[in-house]
User: Fold these one by one.
Assistant:
Number 1:
Amino acid sequence: MINQTVKNLFFKEFASYFKTPLGYVFLVIFLFGIGYLTFEPGRGSFFYMREASMTSFFKYIPWMFLFLIPAVSMRLWSEERKSGTVELLLTMPVTVKQAVLAKFFASWAFIGLALLGTFPMIITVTYLGKPDYGVIFLGYLASFLIAGSLLAVGGFFSALTKNQVISFILTVCVSFLLLMAGSPPILDFISSFSPKYVVDLFESLSVLNHFDSIERGVFSLSNIWFFSVMISFWLFGNIILLDENKAN
Amino acid sequence: MNKQKENYLKVILGLFSMTLLIYIGSTLFKKVRIDFTEERLYTLSNGTKSILNKLDSPINLKLYYSKTAANKGTEGLRAFNNHFLYVQELLRQFVSNSRNNLKLEVIDPRPDTPEEEDAVMYGLKKFNLTETERYFFGLVAENESGTEKIIEFFDPNQKDKLEYELTKLIYTVLNPQKKNIGILSSIDVLVDDLNPYMAQIMRMQGKDVNQSWLVTQLLSEFYNVKKIEKDTKSISGVDSLVIIHPTGFSDDTLFAIDQYVLNGGNVLVFTDPNTVSLKSSSMYGTSSSPDNNFKKLMDKWGIELQENSYAGDRYLSGYGRFHPNRPPGRLLALLNCNEVCTEQYNDNITSGINDAAFVFPGVLKAKSIEGVKHSVIMSTSNKGNAYRAQGYELNNPDILWKKFTEGSSPVVIAYKAMGKFKTAYPNGTKKKEKKNNKQFLKESKKESVVIVFSDVDFISDQFAFKNTFLGASVANDNSTLFLNSVEAISGDMDLMSVRSKGRVNRSFDVINEIEFEAEKRTADKVKEINASIARFQSELNQLGSKANAGNIALLQNEGIKKKKELAKNIAALKKELRNVKREGREKVERIGKFFQYFNTMFVPFFVIVFGIYYNYKRSSLMQGRREIINHKKDSHHTENFTEVKA
């Protein structure tokens, strides 16, 4: 059973996104940006492709998240640490693990809400043609999972430093690396000095490969495994860092 | 070790275990998956699984894809990466269902490497991107005995047929010999060809030169083609049989066909209620097939061609002219089939066929027969209908249009019957010969397939090919449809049951409709303009015929006046034409803009409104609370003051 304190903390965190302009700015930039990129004039444009699928929409999601998720995650712990409220929080009847999970799920739910805000796209494809709803559902699931992974990374770096800007930059860098891990230039670079199994190892870390695989319409156990391990590890790191902070 | 160091070590160890766990998990759990796509793009059909189950020796699959070259190339080339991922994923499914008999190797052939040399040697299609960089995207399958078959290039447009192509490749590695196809026809579709020089001389002498139909010549490139005589008593030594225009066959031949099917032979039949390409067709008479005797056979297959009845479709009608002295226009008799005719049936025969032209195609009906499964291969659209016509009516397009009414369900022009059939000759051919044919079959020993088309003309030279400077070349998809059909009947039953994944049409229906409407209105306007010009010309001719020395000047003036009038009319009509075109374009653009604003502005607007409202409410609430607190503080202060005063 989920502890009542964790529940309260979750709702408090979730509500906090709507008490400051930051949450609204994030939502507006994300929804406007993804809409604009999907319809941007060009060969990849949704209207140019004339296909009732959301491929043009989902292909921009990881790149939108690359900058917007660090912006959400940077304040998770850095702000608390800087203002000293983290000590106050940890004196409450809540463990570090519970606090980390509550904050993580609150921010994940917030991103989930942002994704729900893109429902006009589903109306659009339904009006214009006959979309494959199974693939659309998986596209959203993949977007939600990629958001979870990047948020976990962001939470870790937010706990690492008191400075929100540093946390933002570190998260962007690591997220970019995780997104690009399977891309040919990076793999070429690694293969120039490493054996093949190291290249394979690196390729398996690619968030984008797993995202693409789900977004194509096939959901495999390896995808769930990848995102679960990824999220668990970064949250585990987050807990360790806060434990150390608490000890200090 | 202090706590801090221990924690850092934990994080590093965690990072290491995460990488390892992800790597192991990605390899182990790849096979457990759910295919969410509507067309089940990533799920193998039972036919494929059955063929893979028959594998008892290893086959190596080498997938050549120039990934590095594609990533360096243009955006269009990078788009092939998606198709490569699909091919790779499907091949992995093949491997995992092959009981370790298939081995897949993915090769990225770089310039000047042995891999590139191998790709060229195998005969894979090569595209030169730069002076050094070459692009390959093909597959080689080879078994232990050295048989190798290739798919020279994976065309993304043939995505729906990919599983069939891969299964066929494996099937042909298992069965590498060339198939024998028998052709039985009442028309001379397969004759001993004269040499081209003699044929030319005979033509110059005004003599008729009988030549094989080009489709049969095309067929002989892939199969051993054997002619079956019209009066043959038995059909043997052929893997599959093609019957064209079945009429006038002897009883023995019909009996031989019947027994061939019951023995598990597959048959492709081309019937036609009106074969216009036959030279023997008289002015008003029609040459039709099947005759009554062949109908008995078709009856046992559960397929019937309706007499004097034709399949028509207003939206698929072709553009042309019946006679050279008639103006061109839409012809009901010409059915130009695109994907609308095939997409709902997902048959491999029609995969990739979107330009097949039929002339007076007939109407096929299927009746249910126990143990036989009928499936439609091609039909008109939902708005197509059957119409009846005969004699002189067939030569008059206007009469045909008058006879036609729009329908509400498709009219079938090609059927496939699969299963076990019964004989049409339960008592043999003739009573007196009964004792000679005691050993005949009364029902199928094993399953077979019969495919029936309701048109013969579409495979004739006249409608499937066109003459060019370099000789005959294919005019449309008719010859491909013929080859696909032959391929379908010459394969294994399992191979035949591998259905095309189907291509669900996901284009913007709303936009297509607007554009179709605009095109229709444009065509009407063009017709109006042409009619005005024709009217003017006939008026001018009439004036010319009245001309004599006395009134020539007057008539010239009249002519100039009419010409001015016509120019004015045409200018007005052209303006309307421009408006119609612009309106269609603007309507599409308006829809595009609307959805762009809807997707970029709609929700953000509500988020902003909600944010303002919520924070206003919140601050009012806070203000209220502050006031209450202040008020309490004030009253407390006053009370204290009063007490002190007292």
Number 2:
Amino acid sequence: MTNTTKSSGKSYKKEMPILWWTRRTSHIIFVMRELTSLGVAYFAIILLLLIGAISQGEESYYEFIKLMKSPILIWLSIISLLGLIFHSVTWFNLAPKAMVVKFGKYRIPGIVIMLSNYAGWIVISIIVGRFLLY
Amino acid sequence: MADKITLEVFRYRPDDNSEPSFQKYMIPLQRDWVILDALNYIKDHIDGTLSYRWSCRMGICGSCGMMVNEKPVLTCAAFLENLIPGPVRIEPLENFPVVRDLVIDMRDFLEKLKRVKPWIIREQEDPAIEEYKQTPDQLADFKQYSMCINCMLCYSACPVYGLEPEFTGPAVIALAQRYNMDNRDHGNSARMDALSDESGMWQCTFIGDCSKVCPKKVDPAGAIQRYKVHGANTWWKNLLLPWAKDK
């Protein structure tokens, strides 16, 4: 029995199926969160096109606004916005895992870190909202 | 209640038959049995050719991890009673090459563990100091990460490791953090390269299943995210204050 630790060299490795992420709820949520990056890209492109339209003058700006009011683009915007809200909420809920803040011996509870992230989000949204509306 | 339960056990014997298959075993259903007891019953009374790893039977050696109904668990802690009526499907830990039946090849994990230098590194040893003292608070900073038993359930739960086998992986990064956060250690920068290269912590997409399956509540997902924050801070510090030295 001298060769007991020596393997025959052969081993079996199962390949990950292409739909591996459908097997668990946590994986479906994860893939959904990754897909929200398409929403970010969508809004970034819209913003660039908007700036481009403004630089062309008033007429092209109003033409762009008219284009954006088409039902397909409104639906795309709604879906992207929902995706980004989903991304932000899941992200803020995870924040306490990454952020451990200590004052001396005292560790700030996770819920405080999570809520302060939400508070920052709301404050920035109000400031940006005011710029947009006035 | 039925007094028997069926186990569908993954079999792979490279010597006589290279295709893996499932073999069914009908065993007595004992309420106080865990999966490992059931496997030992099969080995002792039904089929002596079944291969699997186990040692302590009490959740500390970390060698009996397997997939039970597609979830990575320590089989010494998974009660048959909770899997009634069956059949119960038992497979080797996912994402690892299978050597035989339920035995996986763990060399990849051990190699990765070595790369992050999981021991206390001192800049210099002072023989005059007999002990390096630590307060309970300093211990509490990393104690959670020191509970890891190298059972590799987190690697089985991690789709990133399944898709990108180069990924350093959850337990190894958590164990690197165990030493990085130890006040007696000076090895932070010595471990940084292995942890922050393209196979390191940035591969992690924070799915979080590693922490869910961990039998010791180590929370490797949390450890990796904290290390990402540390890595990003170090990068900025090196850029803005190149003369400041990291631990």
